[in-house]
Amino acid sequence: MGRVVVEVMPKPEILDPQGKAVVGALPRLGFTQFTGVRQGKRFELEVDGDVTPEVLVAAQQAAEMLLSNPIIEDVVRVADAAVESVA
């Protein structure tokens, strides 16, 4: 079974109240090195079999049509979860 990761973020010109709340809380918790936060969405789509280029194209289309609101959000990443780097 394969998995595709889709990441969606608010467009830069869109106000991000959740991000503002987080960036305001970080210094109170001792994290003074961060000056901005944008909060987005992450989707994990499972597929039968391997993640092929065709699956990635379909995931991109699904992200643009259903997973994001193109008026206020950008699809910033569609990738095979198996090739993600570990943090």
TrEMBL record:
Source organism, top-level taxon: Bacteria
Entry keyword Thylakoid: no
Main location: cytoplasm
Pathway given in the UniProt record: Purine metabolism; IMP biosynthesis via de novo pathway; 5-amino-1-(5-phospho-D-ribosyl)imidazole from N(2)-formyl-N(1)-(5-phospho-D-ribosyl)glycinamide: step 1/2
Gene3D superfamilies: Phosphoribosylformylglycinamidine synthase subunit PurS (3.30.1280.10)
Signal sequence region: none
EC number assigned by the record: 6.3.5.3
Gene Ontology molecular-function annotations: phosphoribosylformylglycinamidine synthase activity
Catalytic activity: N(2)-formyl-N(1)-(5-phospho-beta-D-ribosyl)glycinamide + L-glutamine + ATP + H2O = 2-formamido-N(1)-(5-O-phospho-beta-D-ribosyl)acetamidine + L-glutamate + ADP + phosphate + H(+)
InterPro entries according to UniProt: PurS, PurS-like_sf
Cellular localization per UniProt: Cytoplasm
Keywords: ATP-binding, Cytoplasm, Ligase, Nucleotide-binding, Purine biosynthesis
Family: Belongs to the PurS family.
Role, per record: Part of the phosphoribosylformylglycinamidine synthase complex involved in the purines biosynthetic pathway. Catalyzes the ATP-dependent conversion of formylglycinamide ribonucleotide (FGAR) and glutamine to yield formylglycinamidine ribonucleotide (FGAM) and glutamate. The FGAM synthase complex is composed of three subunits. PurQ produces an ammonia molecule by converting glutamine to glutamate. PurL transfers the ammonia molecule to FGAR to form FGAM in an ATP-dependent manner.
Oligomeric and partner information: Part of the FGAM synthase complex composed of 1 PurL, 1 PurQ and 2 PurS subunits.
HAMAP family linked: PurS (MF_01926)
Designated name of the protein: Phosphoribosylformylglycinamidine synthase subunit PurS
Species per Swiss-Prot/TrEMBL record: Isoptericola luteus
